[in-house]
Amino acid sequence: MFKKTRLIVAVVSLATVLYAINSWQLFVNNDIEKRVTFNKHPSAVHKNQIFSTRKSLQYEEMQNALGEPQQQVTSTELEFNSFKIKNINCANVLKGDESAITEARKQPRNIPSYQTLIKHTENCDIFKQVYGYNNIVNTEEEKQFPIAFNILLYKDVAQVEILLRAIYRPQNYYCLHVDGFSPDHVHKAAKALSDCFDNVFIVSKTENVVYQSFQRLQADLNCMADHLAKPDWKYLINLPSQELPLKTNLQIVRILKLLNNTNQVGCRRGIGIIMKRFLHRYEYIYEKNGTYKIVNTHIKYKLPPHHFLTAKGTAYVLLTHQFVEYVLTSQIAKDVLDWCRGILSPDEYYWSMLNFNHHVQVPGSGQEACFNVTELSTYVSWAITKTPDECHGKWLRHICVFSARDLKMLVNRAELFANKFELEYSYTAIQCLSEWLHNQTLSPQAIDTQFYKRLYLKKITYQLDPWTNLKQIKFNETVL
Predict the structure, then answer these.
(1) Best CA proximity match to 94, nearest among 434, 396, 445
(2) Which residues are identified as catalytic?
């Protein structure tokens, strides 16, 4: 009888233990199901998706025990990734592989807008982390050579951000000039972007810019004046917002060093000087809607002051700190600037005239003659010559808007930047060029030192002063 009682007790005890174990397992499973990880972007992961394994639960509890926050995918990260064209082989696109380019064009794309940029910059810490600003490689050599940038824009602030991301370093300075004629949302987006950085700022004085107007030149000068409050930068580079770099920041630093504190400014003479732009005086006629137009008065214009000869270059230049300081403080520079108020497209003359009138000895001008000058700052593919430059994109006002098919040519150019890209039309090219630049930054490539060094050697070995042997052919047709 006693043995039978012990057997019954043992069976009951075992049943009780099994029931307890089963109940505990049910409790754990129910608890796991309650631990739901909600994604802030429901299209990517269903809101009821759960971690259903004990391993996930243990990891979560360990993280909580250590006091470390769980890393969740933010809506900013999901949207940022949605801007990238999927299933695109940029390595082959850069090689000019037609099948890769054709396949890339078929892929759907989500173009970033000013709305998303404003939303993403509401939290600057998340914005800089997701967009990659916190992970930029920055060498000691770059830190010791800060650069000032002017960026002139009138639309597509999302494209400005792509440009900024490609050239951003904490020691550099970036002045954003938003056209006064641009709509409010462009100004707001640019301000939101600049507010996330200590070294990115909106110009203190905005100009209303019309094509070929003096205000285009004044916009650059306004940014330059703001940059002078920051004394440690070495060179200034002015950019339109639709450019992208063809060199990494480290390569740009090394190229600028090879120029040995001289300016790099384009210069043309002869028929390329386009004399009709300054033979007569141009005036601005303001209209009731707030804009203005430039008209030719057909009145012969005065000669440049201080025996200056007229020279034509481009709006995009590489200028030393000392040159910029001279431009903003010298009375000679101010007098030449005043003369430029009466000509067409003065931004294509002012820098060249200051740099190549050697009798004034402007800082950084060297002794280079205005003849076959390499324009190093920016590559532009033009359609206005007898044999148009290479362009696989589309022509806009005689300038090539680059496409993915142009990348094979662009990545082998010597210039520092290329103009132009349009956010929607060129998005494949923009993505692949940005990826290429990022890879170049991670694996630094050597530059052609001898090529860039020759640009400086040519300046200091030119013996003949070009100004003494030139004559004025006709009234106001002085050329270099």
Answers:
(1) 434
(2) 348
Burial 428-465 (b: 16+ CB within 10 A, else e): bbbbbbbbbbbebbeeeeebeeeebeebbebbeeeeee
Provide the number of structural domains found in the chain. 1
- pLDDT of 19 reads 56
| CA angle at 127 for the pair 113 and 193, rounded to the nearest 5° | 60
Q: Does some domain include residue 31?
A: yes
Residues 6+ apart with CB under 8 A from 279: 300, 301, 476, 477
Number of Cβ atoms within 10 Å of the Cβ of 94: 21
Token readout for 82 is: 């949605």
The answer to the question of residue 459 being in a domain is: no
435's tokens: 């990826």
Q: Where in the sequence is the domain holding 13, given as residue range(s)?
A: 2-74
Question: Is position 43 within any domain?
Answer: yes
The answer to whether position 20 is within a domain reads yes
Q: How many CA atoms lie within 13 A of 404 on its CB side?
A: 27
Q: What is the mean pLDDT of each run of 10 residues along the chain (480 residues)?
A: 52 55 48 37 35 38 45 82 93 96 92 96 97 96 98 98 98 98 98 98 98 97 97 96 98 96 90 92 93 96 96 96 98 98 98 95 89 87 81 94 97 96 97 97 91 77 41 37
